[in-house]
Amino acid sequence: MAHDIDVTPAFNASGLGVSEFDRLVRLVYEGIGEPVPWTRLLEFLLRPLGANYVSLILRPPAPDLPWRVVFAGEAQPVIAATYESFFYAMDPFVNLPADRMVMVDEVINEADWLKSAIYQEFLKPLNIRYYMGADLGGGDDAICRLRVSRPIGSTPFGERERAICTLLLAHLKCAVRLRSLQDVTEAERSVYAGTLERLSIGAVILDKKGRVLKTNHAADEILAAKNGLSIVNGSLHAAYGSEHRELQRLINHAIAGTTDSGPGVVAAMSITRTAGHGNLGVLVRSAPLAEWSESANRPAAVVVIRDSESRVQASQTMMKRLYGLTPAESTLTLKLLDGLTVDEAAEELSISRNTARCQLRAIFAKTGVTRQTELLRQLLSGVIPLG
């Protein structure tokens, strides 16, 4: 059974007041959302710790990945880069006891430490004399590593400085894990958003009052044309009165959280555009609501927009990898995916019809189909549009 750790001794030894400690904890959790996480926290810690550097190693150096470290202090990038490429492998101040602040002289004899290559060639040029740190999580799987240093000519770290860091370790460990979860969510969102963009599908997220919170690039292009659908006073607006009223009804229905045709899906409708342009297909659905989440500007509805005239995005590289198509064959295939006939594609590509038909036969052989309709169905139903 887990037991809460009594932090009273550390708090008493830290010399911090309640307001100072409260600010430090807030900086830990506010740091999750900073562009370079925990920058303000590390900069704030310099003074109470009497440090010339405070750093947080979020990812140690690896053969296939650069290290990720947040610095506060006068770090010299040229010297710091040598740590990643050379000195990390010989650093004795690693794999510390989990979740505990440790002074360097508790790990290695002081004389040996001061004579070591990492101290003489890396730390000393950075004006580092005294050193303490903690590995959060411990061992090779530590989720991050906190390091604090003082300059040459200063005094060693004491129990007060150790106590200040100790008070933050559990909070910092929790915050780093929360940041990792946020990164996973962002990566997942980016994958889905990228897929919609590749398919030229517009997505518009609305709040509880039907106001536009966010749009993707495909939606921006459709709405910027102001042909059938646009944004007016922060809300979606259909050009024709009857369609606008129906669109608003569907949006309000979605915001209310009811469904007609499946989980989260309210309905679909068609938006008329000017002559010569096909209609826009619109799907309106309720936005998923987390059980414990509620705010005034939370996403409440999602409007998905499909332009029947939009072109499938596909790359020649993808077609070469999947089917071995040559650049010329890939270019012809892209024209067919855009809806052109073979003769129209030949004219646009400035090649003869016979050349285009020879290329098409080669494409059939490589993709294993015998007709153009089969080719298009195979390409559109596969991963080509997602690449």
Could you describe the 3D structure shown?
InterPro entries: Sig_transdc_resp-reg_C-effctor (IPR016032), Tscrpt_reg_LuxR_C (IPR000792), WH-like_DNA-bd_sf (IPR036388). The structure is a single chain. The protein is elongated and about 80 Å long. The protein has 14 helices and twelve strands. Helix 11 (327-337) packs across helix 13. It has 387 residues and is α+β, with helices and mostly antiparallel strands. The longest helix has 40 residues, at 159-198. The model is unreliable at 258-262 (pLDDT under 50). The strands form three sheets. Strands 2-1-5-4-3 form a five-stranded antiparallel sheet, with helices on one face. The protein has a five-stranded antiparallel sheet with strand order 7-6-12-11-10. It folds into three domains: 8-185, Beta-Lactamase (2-Layer Sandwich), CATH 3.30.450; 199-307, PAS domain (Beta-Lactamase); 316-386, Orthogonal Bundle (Arc Repressor Mutant, subunit A), CATH 1.10.10.10.
List keywords for this structure.
5-stranded antiparallel sheet; Sig_transdc_resp-reg_C-effctor; LuxR family transcriptional regulator; Beta-Lactamase; Arc Repressor Mutant, subunit A; WH-like_DNA-bd_sf; alpha+beta; 14 helices; 12 strands; 3 domains; 387 residues; elongated; Tscrpt_reg_LuxR_C
Number of alpha- plus pi-helical segments? 14
- Tell me the domain tally: 3
Low-pLDDT parts are: 258-262
Run of helices and strands: HHHEEHEHHEEHEEHEEHEEEHHHHH
Task: Give the second-level CATH assignment, the architecture of the largest domain.
Answer: 2-Layer Sandwich
Assembly context of the chains: single chain
* Mean pLDDT level: 84
Biggest sheet, in brief?
5 strands, antiparallel
Shape: elongated
Rg computed from alpha carbons, rounded to a whole number of angstroms: 30 Å
Helix content: 40-55%
- Percentage of residues in DSSP E strands: 15-25%
Domain HTH luxR-type: 322-379
Organism: Aromatoleum diolicum
Protein name: LuxR family transcriptional regulator
InterPro entries: Sig_transdc_resp-reg_C-effctor, Tscrpt_reg_LuxR_C, WH-like_DNA-bd_sf
